[in-house]
Every structure is written in C-alpha cells, then in structure tokens.
Write a structure and sequence with these properties.
about 190 residues; about 45% helix; 7 helices; alpha+beta; two-stranded antiparallel ribbon; globular
Length: about 190
C-alpha cells in the first residue's frame, strides 16, 4: 500500500488569491502564500494537485504496451495546427537528457521553466552572454517540440510547463527502455 503525502515547508513558492487594498480601491491579486491558517484552503489545493501529479508519474513508471506504441509515434514527425515538429530519437543522449530533465522530481509540484532545463542540460556555466542566449533559445525550441508532441503542457497564466499524462508515460518508457536495454550507453555519452 502506498501513502502519498505532501509537506509544504516553503509556501512562498506558491500563489494565493487575496483581496489587496491599493490606491484604486480593493483588488484581487495573486500574492505569495505565507504560513497561516487563512491559507489552509490553498494548502489543500496545492497538496492535492501535487499528490495527483506524483501518482500519475508513478503509474507511468513501468513501460507497458501503450507506452511502447506511444514511443513509436514519438519517433515520427508531427504536424499540429499547421506547424511541423521534428521527431524525437528516444535512444539519442540529447533527447534522453531532455526527457530526464523534464521528468526531474523537483519539477513535480510547481513545474519547470526554461532556466530549469538550461541548468540541467548544461551543467557548465556559459562562457559569454551570447552563449547563454543561445542555450536559452535552444531550450525554448525544445520545449516547443515537447509541446508539439503533447508531452508537456503550459500552465495557464505562467511561464511554467508540466509533463502531461501522455508525457509521463512516453518519456518514462523511453528512459526505462534505454536504461534496461542500453545501460552503459548513457554513461559513455555523458
């Protein structure tokens, strides 16, 4: 039996809707959540959402027949809303590193941003400002490619992305299949 719990130690990472007094009068704004009983309803929403996403990720942990079929679709280019998205190669070190970065556990609650993926894909700091811009632009294109294949979705109103159910299933299947079939290939490429 699995018991899933969420403990929020730093609530300032989350937002809560409050009525704030301003010069124009009282307005509703999303503010940083603080520790207090008044925000208990928001703690509940955040905790339930985190637990649901965690259980979805656990459910996709073992590749099944559906995951393998979805991997096959991932290896084909995709046209969506008139835009072309290139195929993924689930065995290549670059795509596997991207999948591992998008599935990282620290992104399960809040999601990930461009800068989070840049930090995981490029552990060495950039040599120049131009190099940093290139990395940011490349990761933006990779996020667009992930979105085009339906592997991640944008959180509305924020610059944050989360893996979809299909994304958890497909990316986990790709990583698990690679680690099972080619365990030393990742070490050689790194």
């Amino acid at each position: 039996m699995v018991r899933v719990e969420t403990t929020i130690n730093n609530p300032r990472e989350f937002r809560v809707l409050r009525v704030v007094s301003t010069d124009q009068g009282r307005q509703r704004r999303w503010c940083q959540m603080n520790k207090g009983v008044a925000n208990m309803w928001r703690y509940l929403q955040v905790g339930i959402g985190a637990n649901r996403r965690y259980l979805d990720a656990l459910a996709a942990a073992r590749p099944q027949g559906e995951g393998v079929a979805a991997l096959d679709a991932l290896c084909r280019s995709n046209n969506k809303h008139g835009r072309h998205y290139a195929r993924f190669d689930p065995i290549s070190p670059g795509d596997l590193a991207l999948f591992r970065a998008a599935l990282a556990g620290e992104h399960s609650i809040v999601g990930f941003r461009n800068a989070d993926l840049v930090a995981r894909l490029y552990p060495v700091p950039p040599r120049s400002q131009e190099d940093a811009r290139r990395r940011c632009a490349r990761v933006s294109r990779l996020i667009a490619k992930l979105r085009g294949h339906g592997l991640v979705a944008k959180v509305p109103g924020q610059r944050v992305y989360r893996p979809t159910r299909c994304g958890y299933r497909v990316m986990t299947a790709a990583v698990a299949m690679h680690d099972d079939r080619f365990p030393n290939a990742y070490l050689e490429a790194a």
